[in-house]
Design brief:
Blueprint (H helix, E strand, L loop, with lengths): L5 E3 L2 E3 L3 E3 L8 H10 L3 E7 L14 E5 L5 E6 L8 H14 L4 E6 L5 H13 L4 E5 L13 H4 L2 H14 L4 E4 L8 H9 L4 E4 L3 E3 L2 E3 L4 E3 L9 E4 L4 H13 L8 E4 L5 H9 L2 E6 L1 H6 L3 H15 L28 E5 L9 H9 L4 E3 L5 E3 L9 H5 L6 E5 L26 H7 L1
Parallel strand pairs: 3-4, 3-16, 4-7, 7-8, 8-9, 9-10, 10-15, 15-16
Antiparallel strand pairs: 1-2, 5-6, 6-14, 11-14, 12-13, 17-20, 18-19
Helix pairs in contact: 3-5, 5-6, 8-10
Length: 434
Amino acid sequence: MANLATNFVGIKSPNPFWLASAPPTDKEYNVVRAFKAGWGGVVWKTLGSEGPPVVNVNGPRYGAIWGADRRLLGLNNIELITDRPLEVNLQEIKRVKRDWKDRALIVSLMVPCDEESWKSILKHVEDTEADGVELNFGCPHGMSERGMGSAVGQVPEYIEMVTRWVKQHSRMPCIVKLTPNITDIRKPAEAAKRGGADAVSLINTINSITSVNLDSFAPEPTIDGRGAHGGYCGPAVKPIALNMVAEIARSAETRGLPISGIGGVTTWRDAAEFMALGAGSVQVCTAAMTYGFKIVQEMISGLSQYMDEKGMTSVDQLVGRAVGNVTDWNQLNLNHVTKAVIDQDACIKCGRCYAACEDTSHQAIDMSADRIFTVKDEECVACNLCVNVCPVENCITMKTLPLGSVDPRTGRVVETYANWTTHPNNPMAIKAAE
């Protein structure tokens, strides 16, 4: 049986599944229910410093994007950090950690960008005996307008400065939460590392407006006739998150920096993909808000079964396994050739592959009078569009042409090079030769 226990920068948990800092982790009641359901850890909803109270809107806080079957694909939220008193949160954190010593409990923090404010709140958090802190440098709405959140996360110098303060004034592991609302995710990660961060977590939510009401002509959610940009999360952001995690994991400047992966994790498979790209733990929010806390049980059983099938006995054997296979486009083997193949027994003759290829691709699928669809190898460029539009799983697959065969489209012999950087078809090699 695979052992799912993790030790992430000294923070131990029975499994790698943590609830992200968000409404589900706003209070003791929620967190205890989460731990009873099986979550390995939580990041407590972001605390702010003592001072003017945080006031959230008293109206809709979420906008949504749905699939054709009403499945939730993405949420846009305009909720701020916790609006509950700091002292109440601290008391609840202390009680939860006392009662659940085997679970990871990390406290998310966001305070004004001055050293004294950080020093003060860190002392209070340490007194709770929480396992670590996560610096919220990613919130794209509300707090960023006050000079916090992504307003800090978009400036590497600020990230490095605040991280140094936290490491100087705290004994706790420090995780820096990064904003995706930036051109190059590697730069803030490098700044966090220079500042002494023990790890980074990403991604925070993406700046967004999910929809506009065409009767009131205001963004949704609408508050008294007006709307604002918010933070986008959920399954739709997973591809963006995976890419950013991979960029940090494979960059020479940040390679080896522990990563907590966030962004659209809904199933055990999603979690495994993040882990294969370098995440030592994964954080979940939208899935829990959509299906409830018990969704973690499917994640635990699914990941455990997958690891058993792969002969993995610990999560360390999964973390980072795919990083070495992530590369840049100019390193791809342009002499690798595949062709689409249609399984006639599985085909339901809907014609979607034909329409897509004929109208928008390479006219590589032929349709007979009795609606039999076949691939024209001499035209097929293996773009994979037919596979993606086909409603029947595995009806259309891609077959790799063996080495030494001739590509019927180009007439070139299929071959491989041990060092692709010197291959005559590699654009970079051609440029160098010129």
